[in-house]
Structure formats: structure tokens, C-alpha cells
Amino acid sequence: MFGITRCITRGASRQQLSSKRGRNHYKGTGSGAMGRHTKRGGYFIEWEKVRSFVVPDLTAFKLLPYVSRSTQKTTGAFTAQDYFRKNETTVVPEKIAS
């Protein structure tokens, strides 16, 4: 009886499987292979599998990726009422306004 319970508890680990747990476990990135291995140990890239990212034309794009140093520092917590006070054209629901 004790041998059976010992075996059950040994294999009943319910922890997250990571590279620190599990022998030779490699999670990977899920990206898939872009080619295949050859007989002589090389790697052949199949160009149909290579990822290509299509980026739109950003020449007329007006937003910048960084925040300017001249931005004003906020004081206190920012609430929903402050947001609607800034945008005067927005209709304020009664639950937020009260």
C-alpha cells in the first residue's frame, strides 16, 4: 500500500513546467522553424517560411515615440472627472458626474 501512494505522489506534481523544472525542458518562443537541417549538419533556409513584416508608410505620421521634457507634472490622482473636464465636448454619464 505504501509503495503505491509513494509512486502517485512522486508523479503528481501540479507546478508550472519551466526550464528549472523538468529534465531537458525547453519552452521555446513558438515561432517555428524557418528551414530544415541537412544530412551533413547544415541548415537550409526555406525562404517561403521566413517572416516578413509589412510596415505602413510613416512619413506623414505626427506622433513621436517619446514624451517631451516640457510636459507638465501632474498633482494628485487622476480621476474620471478630470478626464471628462478636459474634454468638454464629451457627454458625462450621471454615475461618473455625481
Automatic annotation (TrEMBL):
Its main location: mitochondrion. Residues 13-38 are annotated as: Disordered. InterPro entries: Ribosomal_mL41 (IPR019189). The keyword Transit peptide applies. Keywords: Mitochondrion, Ribonucleoprotein, Ribosomal protein, Transit peptide. Pfam families: MRP-L27. GO terms for cellular component: mitochondrial large ribosomal subunit. It is found in: Mitochondrion. One of its GO terms (molecular function) is structural constituent of ribosome. GO terms for biological process: translation. Belongs to the mitochondrion-specific ribosomal protein mL41 family. PANTHER family: LARGE RIBOSOMAL SUBUNIT PROTEIN ML41, MITOCHONDRIAL RIBOSOMAL PROTEIN L41. This is Large subunit ribosomal protein L41. The lineage of its organism: Eukaryota, Fungi, Fungi incertae sedis, Mucoromycota, Mortierellomycotina.
